């Protein structure tokens, strides 16, 4: 069944304090065009810069998710994004007159209720999902995080946290579909431990933080003197207390496992940065903003690769990104000087892997050398350059109008001869990528053995 994109019907606003900056700001949600996506606008800055809420504009994840364009940034947007995606809103403009979204009560429910009040409008644009045909995984051993996404007909989330803390410990939850977000997850508040709060407060990093916009988990056996110290730091007139669940100031929990449910809120907000909704079952253990964003980066590369395959290639083979026909639609080289047969891996703006099957029928073997055929080293370098050129030309809206000229090739080394029957694998990795000048590191392999390497500098010019 065809699904259509949504925006909101009327503008709505909310004014509140930013968790980290302590600045009061007003955030206003407005309707957007059918393919605009989620865009923040800093209306307090000259020219009112617009910042797309996508993974390409994430500039900081140290304390929440921050997006930016040049000097214009908006911080702590994850709860806002979670509310938007929790209502399946695709396009929305968000005006804000400060550097940080209001924290509200530390959950997404304030923004979700506000957006419901604005009302939803269906748009004349079909919703496109990012789908999975096989499981993918992401691990960060240093963070003790594991995430797996398996194919599903809708978005599902299974989440587990495991804290070595007597008031928290292990919690588990699952989101069967996005329709359950409003009732079962949106009101789950952010949480932290008192030692973290005190450290951040002393460093001036949570100027807007209080015991009312986060669940602050106490240390066991806290003394009256320590509670008095907390009261003084936050400027409370009344005594600070601890609930049976270990929460400062006796805030009742919205859900029995509110802590892990808030982790799902953060995850929903962070995966909104992909720019398209997901159909898949996400199974996450101990993930936070940092690893969520790294996961979205991986998904973004997969998404770009899928889009490229649709653009250039008819065959949707899992093992081939571009076949020979697709390659010839991108670079101008032709027989007998097309020296890459297929692209098997492509991470746009990062790396590319090409394959060349070397056969005895190659025309250069007639003279290099009769009776002892060896592929000329300069042609191995040329094949590497052509592979790198595919990645460079991909930056252009119409690659057929441009050509990649290699300005220099340095530090070239040949390790082993390449002979008929060998399969060459070109691996090109970006060092720097700019519109008019790019640097790459290239290596060529036969099997596991390196046969050549070099550093490449290239420019793109119109034909």
TrEMBL record:
Q: Which domain of life is it from?
A: Bacteria
Q: What is this protein called?
A: Bifunctional UDP-3-O-[3-hydroxymyristoyl] N-acetylglucosamine deacetylase/3-hydroxyacyl-ACP dehydratase
Which organism is this entry from?
Candidatus Syntrophosphaera thermopropionivorans
């Amino acid at each position: 069944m065809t699904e259509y994109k949504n925006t909101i019907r009327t503008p709505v606003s909310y004014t509140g304090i930013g968790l980290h900056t302590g600045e009061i700001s007003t955030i206003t949600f407005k309707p957007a065009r059918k393919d605009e996506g989620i865009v923040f606008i800093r209306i307090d800055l000259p020219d009112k810069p617009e910042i797309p809420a996508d993974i390409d504009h994430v500039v900081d994840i140290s304390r929440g998710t921050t997006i930016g364009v040049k000097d214009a940034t908006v911080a702590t947007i994850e709860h806002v994004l979670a509310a938007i995606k929790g209502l399946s809103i695709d396009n929305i403009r968000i005006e804000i007159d400060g550097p940080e979204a209001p924290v509200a009560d530390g959950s997404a429910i304030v923004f979700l209720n506000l957006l419901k009040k604005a009302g939803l409008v269906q748009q004349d644009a079909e919703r496109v999902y990012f789908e999975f045909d096989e499981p993918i995984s992401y691990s960060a051993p240093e963070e003790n995080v594991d995430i797996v996404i398996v194919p599903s007909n809708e978005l599902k989330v299974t989440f587990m946290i495991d804290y070595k803390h007597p008031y928290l410990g292990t919690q588990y939850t699952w989101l069967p579909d996005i329709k359950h977000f409003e009732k079962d997850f949106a009101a789950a508040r952010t949480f932290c431990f008192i030692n973290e709060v005190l450290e951040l407060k002393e460093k001036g990093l949570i100027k807007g933080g209080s015991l009312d916009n986060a669940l602050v988990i106490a240390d066991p056996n806290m003394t009256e003197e320590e509670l008095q110290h907390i009261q003084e730091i936050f400027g409370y007139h009344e005594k600070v207390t601890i609930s049976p669940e270990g929460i400062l100031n006796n805030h009742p929990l919205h859900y029995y496992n509110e802590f892990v449910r808030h982790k799902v809120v953060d995850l929903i907000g962070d995966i909104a940065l992909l720019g398209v909704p997901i159909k898949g079952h996400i199974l996450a253990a101990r993930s936070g903003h940092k690893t969520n964003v790294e996961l979205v980066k991986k998904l973004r590369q997969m998404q770009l690769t899928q889009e490229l395959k649709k653009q250039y290639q008819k065959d949707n083979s899992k093992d081939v990104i571009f076949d020979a026909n697709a390659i010839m639609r991108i670079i101008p080289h032709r027989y007998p000087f097309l020296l890459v047969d297929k692209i098997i891996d492509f991470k746009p703006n990062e790396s590319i892997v090409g394959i060349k099957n070397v056969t005895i029928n190659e025309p250069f073997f007639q003279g290099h050398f009769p009776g002892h055929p060896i592929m000329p080293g300069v042609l191995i370098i040329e094949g590497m350059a052509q592979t790198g050129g595919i990645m460079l030309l991909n930056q252009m809206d119409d690659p057929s109008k441009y050509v990649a000229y290699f300005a220099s090739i340095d530090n070239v080394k040949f390790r082993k001869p390449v002979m008929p029957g060998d399969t060459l694998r070109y691996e090109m990795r970006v060092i720097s990528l700019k519109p008019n000048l790019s640097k790459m590191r290239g290596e060529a392999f036969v099997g596991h053995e390196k046969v050549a390497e070099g550093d490449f500098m290239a420019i793109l010019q119109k034909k």
